Amino acid sequence: MKCEHCTRKECSKKTKTDDQENAEVDATSPAQEKEEKGEFHKLADAKIFLSDCLACDSCVTAEEGMRVSQQNAKDFFRVLNLNKKCDTSKHKVLAVSVCPQSLPYFAAKFNLSVTDASRRLCGFLKSLGVHYVFDTTIAADFSILESQQEFVQRFQQHSEDKRTLPMLTSACPGWVRYAERVLGSPITPHLCTAKSPQQIMGSLVKDYFARQQNLPPEKIFHVIVGPCYDKKLEALREDIHAAAHSAPGVDCVLTSGELLQIMEQSDLSVKEEAVDTLFGDLKEEEVQRHDGTSSDGYLSHVFRHAAKELFGEDVEKVTYRALRNKDFQEATLEKDGEVVLRFAAAYGFRNIQNMILKLRKGKFPYHFVEVLACPGGCLHGRGQAQAEDGHADKALLRQMEGIYAELPVRPPESSQHVQRLYQEWLHGADTPQVQAALHTSFPSPGTPGSGLDIKW
Q1: Dihedral sign for Cα atoms in the order 206, 248, 226, 420
Q2: CA angle centred on 261, ends 205 and 399, rounded to 5°
Q3: What ranges in 158-194 are assigned the alpha helix state H?
Q4: Pick from 135, 331, 153, 316: which is nearest to 225 by CA?
Q5: Distance CA 409, CA 288 (A)
Q6: pLDDT, tens only, 218-268
Q7: Which of 74, 141, 318, 455 sits most deeply, having the most CB atoms within 10 A of its CB?
Q8: What per-residue string of b and e applies to 95-133 under the rule 16 or more CB within 10 Å gives b?
């Protein structure tokens, strides 16, 4: 049996469970079970369900499937338990980076403000033995700023190379995996080369922060807490790109739901603590977000920057217009009665499929598209938005959306920390270090798969 997103005639490795509802990828040997047992061995195993994941179209090899199954709480507690043993040579510095879209989930569950929820989360993780807890908003700042610059360059070069537009965002790992493994070279040249927030956070922690602490990168065990399962796949992609270096940027990914399960099963007393920054003793006192209703808001930020840089227009508020459905919206900029910028947001697999079909036919009029695999955006990630029956918890999602909307918006251009890092870490805003640390490439199979043949 195949999952609902599969576009292949036969699935080589994934099968349905007995309840015929969800299939899971799970591979842990008895030796691994014995080795990983420790103080927290009673915690339930993490599961990745095919219905949670866009990148299931034979995009995951058997080896990757095994490695994905190891991206769970067991791996996290294996390191915590090693740190309690006498052999200090095996000790690791544990750093956890939390995505901003995860915090409204914890705020709703704890019935707290987002800032208070982040402080409780930070205090809990440190009570377990985590040394540093970071917010990935600073990594999203970098990703958005680099996306802004790249779009302006692509727009200016469009007359010479038609493949430069539309620019498709590349922050969503499920979408990127699908584009690379299934759609291939007709689509991958359109992907923005700016790294995702998760990838950039990995570089910040394992490169900049490691050097500030006089630590080798492999001495840090870096965990990402995020709203969706596809971030586990993204950590595997980082392994490929980090092969020439000493350590991957991210060692383990936990979903918000997995971390909440850990918290619910723990009886540790928790003292609330402020989230750390990459700058020594400086703390994050207030949680802020970017200008997106359920995501990092690439569309809004790139739209404003492009309007100013290309046409001298100051856009205070981006106005969206829903088209086929609420998950496909557009925003346009008019000048002298002519539409000069046409942006879109395409969330969910059906909208992605329609976008690709029109793009292949040359009937896609947009300059930029924010593409996210999860319907409703990152806030609706299946790692935190499911009820016990496996369906979306609509009441919880409405509560999370309201909480997220109340957070103060911080434009990435206004971040003094980012400007400091451009100078201290990357030696400027337009240097080879920027290209190496903040940009990536997208290898593709060359010829597209049958992903466009799906019938809805």
Answers
A1: positive
A2: 90
A3: 173-178
A4: 135
A5: 6
A6: 999 999 999 988 888 888 775 555 544 567 899 999 999 999 999 999 888
A7: 141
A8: bbbbbbbbbbbbbbbeebebbebbbbbbbbbbebebbbb
